[in-house]
């Protein structure tokens, strides 16, 4: 169904060709990605981009921190359209008043600085981005990793909050020109196949090898014509899980129809690669060969066809149980009991969010369930349309009625099931979800307290087929149903009656309304001459996700309170981390007041005159992980480390650019080591980096360090800090992005 080619290819008159009609340099300039990126590049250097975006979006987990950063750095108004959606912290009963306090802050900020405010349950962030902000040839930045509008002709990027603060301060997003990978689509999906089936297959093929890591995916080929716009959007949003940087698709009459339906025909234009476009790699994807897919815990790439899974369920679930028990030793994991009565049985189905809650997905799920029943057993089905306009149209077509009659529950527009803030399954429950991720704890369970639940990703069509069979996992391709196509009609009036449109109407006289949970960032110190860090978390998992670095779910409510949120750092992966980091921070606080802690002197004496070095050596904590930062764009994965006194991360490589950028923007040194180095060091060992400030100032990328083991022995370690931009160097030297701006204001 899919072939990956790790070599360059030309797209000549729309067809892949190994022939070279022009040079690769000329061919690169004929990709859609090149033309859009260079149109937004302010550097004058096509290889080193400084991008200004056309618009931005944030949700209520992130916008408070972003605005607080930008406000502290001198922002007076939003310079570009900036939408503040309220789709993550929408459960206002969680944590008392603090979630609704964030919403009130958001509306007051939209009025003060000139923003767009989308009230709770009106739309999930990416539905609003598609409906009202995407534009062919435009670029959009969002503080959510699934910011992807490529199928609508918009290059969109998900980044951590500091990158949005930069745009609010009229600065740029800086990145080297990325590799561009052709995804060449042919064929037509079979009956019962949906966008999640294609997306899961794509993630399975590309994630583990890093085939498209930090690349732009450019979708072209005759297969696009067979896909409705919701199908394209559903694939596109999941490209985040391949760890690519962004995406862009050819546009056509179907795309034009989307813009016309949303009353924005002027925002459409045709986009195609040039006659001889060149790509660094390419993927052949035959849509006609895609099967119904299931992604098992604990990653969207852990995928099988549903038929493969059912045929080998005993072995697969036994291996999954073993893996889960290693991850969560306190939980009594039991999944083999899902196999009975001739099938594998799930406990829950959820269709939700920017990937699942699309009109076509829910409409076809209703066709599958019409006249049927979810049953009265343990299985439940919850459905979350992406926006009020989508929900309204589903009501008009009768889809909502069909689902309700079958026993499904229709819920408001809310991202909660995607990150553990809604529909948490029972202990040892197995949940099937058309959402974006199934990382550990992503469903909201707390394995550290003995709870365990597993999430499998499936397309809405197969979830509906499973629901029709009372929870027996079933591929939609195996059932007989007739989908009835309904033309989508967007009613903008429901937005006009509820949303606040303030762009261009900033009112400096408006006071920000700040509840007691909204606090300012603590003071952060500039980088000292030397650096000494203690290893307080050493993680040898193949990949460490941002969900593990700072858990989602109920912790989301505290993201306007940096100190309170930091208490949750690594809590579900390395519970002792916070205590260790705080102990290191207390020693640094004492050093800054002029004290000379004996513990620091003892360590520094191993590499020189401890008393003298103490005056010029910053001390803090450090995390080692093989490959950290896969998943969410949330800046808090880095900011919480810094709030607790973290000054460095050491790894073999960063899983995503956005997590590395978050570390840099919070003044955390992004050290890497060579892959052949065996990192055998443990918690309590310290790493001394002499002359680190001069090294960063001078652009030195290979930095000798010393490891002082807890037993007193000293070993050499070579650290690397690769490819820092001039601004990134200054941000690290100043201690964080806020210090960088404060210094210059």
Label the CATH architecture of the largest domain.
Alpha-Beta Barrel
Shape: globular
Mean pLDDT: 93
Strand order of the largest sheet: 17-16-24-23-20-21-22
Q: Strand share of the residues?
A: 15-25%
Number of domains: 4
By CATH reckoning, the class of the largest domain would read Alpha Beta
- Percent range for helical residues? 25-40%
The number of distinct β-strands equals 34
Radius of gyration: 25 Å
Structural class: alpha/beta
How far apart are the termini? 55 Å
Largest sheet: 7 strands, mixed
CATH topology of the largest domain: Aconitase, domain 4
Low-confidence stretches: none
Topology of this protein?
Blueprint: E1 2-5, E2 9-12, E3 15-17, H1 24-28, H2 32-39, E4 48-51, E5 55-58, H3 63-72, E6 82-85, H4 98-113, E7 116-118, H5 125-133, E8 139-142, E9 155-158, H6 161-168, E10 173-176, E11 180-186, H7 195-206, E12 216-220, H8 229-237, E13 246-249, H9 253-261, E14 276-279, E15 281-286, E16 293-295, E17 303-305, H10 306-311, H11 313-327, E18 339-340, E19 343-344, E20 348-351, H12 353-356, H13 359-369, E21 380-383, H14 388-397, H15 399-406, E22 409-410, H16 416-419, E23 429-434, E24 453-458, H17 460-468, H18 493-496, E25 500-501, E26 530-539, E27 544-545, H19 546-549, H20 562-566, H21 577-592, H22 598-604, H23 610-616, E28 617-625, E29 628-630, H24 636-643, E30 646-651, H25 657-665, E31 669-672, E32 686-689, H26 692-697, E33 702-708, E34 714-720, H27 726-734, H28 737-744
Parallel strand pairs: 5-6, 5-8, 6-7, 8-9, 11-12, 11-15, 12-13, 20-21, 20-23, 21-22, 23-24, 26-28, 27-29, 28-30, 30-31
Antiparallel strand pairs: 1-15, 2-3, 2-14, 4-10, 7-25, 16-17, 16-24, 18-19, 26-32, 32-33, 33-34
């Amino acid at each position: 169904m899919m072939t990956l080619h790790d070599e360059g290819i030309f797209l000549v008159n729309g067809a892949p060709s190994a022939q070279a009609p022009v040079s690769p340099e000329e061919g690169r300039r004929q990709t859609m990605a090149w033309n859009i990126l260079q149109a937004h590049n302010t550097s004058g250097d096509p290889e080193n981009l400084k991008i200004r975006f056309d618009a931005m979006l944030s949700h209520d987990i992130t916008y408070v921190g972003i605005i607080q950063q930008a406000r502290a750095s001198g922002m007076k108004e939003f310079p570009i359209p900036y939408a503040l959606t309220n789709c993550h912290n929408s459960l206002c009963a969680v944590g008392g008043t603090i979630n609704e306090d964030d919403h009130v802050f958001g509306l007051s900020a939209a009025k003060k600085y000139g923003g767009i405010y989308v009230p709770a349950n009106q739309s999930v962030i990416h539905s609003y981005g598609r409906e009202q902000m995407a534009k062919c040839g435009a670029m959009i930045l969002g503080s959510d990793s699934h910011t992807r509008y490529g199928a609508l002709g918009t290059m969109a990027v998900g980044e951590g909050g500091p990158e949005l603060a930069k745009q609010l301060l009229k600065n740029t997003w800086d990145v080297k020109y990325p590799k561009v990978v052709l995804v060449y689509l042919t064929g037509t999906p079979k009956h019962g196949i949906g966008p999640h089936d294609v997306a899961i297959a794509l993630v399975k093929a590309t994630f583990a090898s890093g085939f498209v890591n930090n690349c732009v995916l450019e979708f072209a080929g005759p297969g696009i014509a067979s896909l409705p716009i919701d199908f394209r959007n559903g694939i596109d949003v999941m490209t985040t899980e391949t760890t690519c940087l962004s995406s862009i698709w050819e546009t056509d009459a179907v795309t034009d129809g989307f813009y016309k339906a949303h009353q924005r025909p002027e925002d459409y234009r045709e986009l195609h690669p040039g006659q001889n476009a060149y790509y660094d790699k390419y993927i052949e994807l035959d849509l006609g060969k895609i099967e119904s897919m299931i992604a098992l815990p604990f990653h969207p790439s852990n995928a099988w066809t549903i038929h493969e899974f059912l045929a080998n369920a005993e072995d697969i679930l036994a291996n999954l149980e073993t893996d889960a028990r290693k991850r969560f030793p306190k939980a009594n994991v039991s999944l083999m009991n899902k196999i009975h009565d001739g099938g594998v049985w799930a406990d829950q189905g959820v269709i939700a969010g920017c990937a699942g809650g699309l009109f076509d997905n829910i409409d076809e799920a209703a066709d599958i369930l019409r006249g049927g029943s979810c049953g009265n057993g343990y299985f439940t089905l919850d459905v979350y349309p992406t926006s009020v306009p989508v929900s309204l149209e589903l009501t008009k077509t009768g889809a909502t009625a069909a689902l309700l009659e079958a026993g499904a529950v229709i819920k408001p527009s809310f991202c909660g099931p995607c990150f553990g803030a809604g529909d948490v399954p029972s202990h040892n429950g197995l949940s099937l979800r058309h959402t974006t991720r199934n990382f550990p704890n992503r469903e909201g369970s707390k394995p550290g307290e003995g709870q365990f639940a597993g999430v499998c990703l499936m397309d809405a069509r197969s979830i509906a087929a499973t629901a029709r069979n009372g929870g027996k996992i079933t591929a939609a391709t195996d059932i007989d149903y007739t989908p009835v196509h309904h033309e989508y009609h967007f009613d903008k009036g429901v937005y006009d009656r509820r949303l606040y449109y303030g762009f261009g109407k900033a009112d400096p006289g408006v006071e920000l309304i700040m509840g007691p949970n909204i606090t300012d960032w603590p003071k952060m110190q500039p980088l000292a001459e030397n650096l000494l860090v203690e290893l307080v978390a050493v993680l040898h998992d193949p990949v460490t996700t941002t969900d593990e670095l700072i858990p989602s779910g109920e912790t989301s409510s505290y993201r306007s309170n940096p100190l309170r949120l930091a208490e949750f750092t690594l809590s579900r992966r390395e519970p002792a981390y916070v205590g260790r980091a705080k102990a290191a921070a207390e020693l640094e606080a004492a050093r800054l007041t002029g004290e000379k802690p004996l513990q620091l002197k003892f360590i520094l004496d191993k590499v020189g005159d401890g008393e003298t070095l103490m005056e010029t050596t910053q001390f803090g904590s450090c995390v080692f992980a093989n490959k950290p930062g896969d998943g969410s764009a949330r800046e808090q994965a880095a900011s919480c480390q810094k709030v607790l006194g973290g000054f460095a991360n050491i790894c073999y490589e960063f899983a995503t650019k956005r997590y590395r950028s978050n570390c840099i923007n919070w003044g955390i040194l992004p050290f890497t080591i060579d892959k052949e180095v065996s990192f055998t060091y443990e918690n309590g060992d310290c790493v001394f980096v002499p002359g680190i400030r001069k090294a960063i100032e001078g652009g030195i990328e290979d930095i000798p360090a010393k490891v002082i083991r807890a037993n007193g022995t000293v070993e050499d370690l070579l650290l690397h800090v690769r490819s820092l931009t001039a601004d990134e160097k200054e941000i690290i030297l100043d201690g964080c992005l806020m210090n960088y701006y404060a210094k210059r204001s």
